[in-house]
Design goal:
The protein is α+β, with helices and mostly antiparallel strands and 159 residues long. It has five helices and eight strands, in the order H-H-E-H-E-H-H-E-E-E-E-E-E. It has one domain: Immunoglobulin-like (Sandwich). The chain is globular and about 40 Å long.
Amino acid sequence: MLFLKWLCFGVILCTPLASCGDGALQGAIKMDQAKVWLEKVRFKVSPKVNQDSPITVHLIIIYDDGVMGQVSGMTAEQYFEGESQLRKDHANDIDIVTWEIVPGQEVDDETIAMTKAYGKGAFVFARYSTPEAHREGITDEQEITIHLDEKDFYITKDR
């Protein structure tokens, strides 16, 4: 009798999850594998950012191991050259948040809404006019500040 009670409890608990669409069950199963928990992005922008020129900044959140391997080795130049094709080839495997920033601009805090609950990794790319990688990885941070300086950027963890 006790076995039947537990069996019924398990069926009642699992049935709603089994009927979830859009990968909700898959997402719930993969929650323990999530490596990205980003919720908010802030900016500190130098008046001389990018040698006093506007700059494009992208945050890419990746949900697939194959895409993670592909993007992790890219420089900002390579990323921006291939970004359009990356969006076409992996529309369901990535989220991209973009900003266009001018020197000294005050940028409002941005709340990040991930489309899936199990991000594998995330990167920030900045399109500087200097020939560095201009790429930073994000792991388990919930809130970050992106410091845009004259020739490069760095990220600090706020929470």
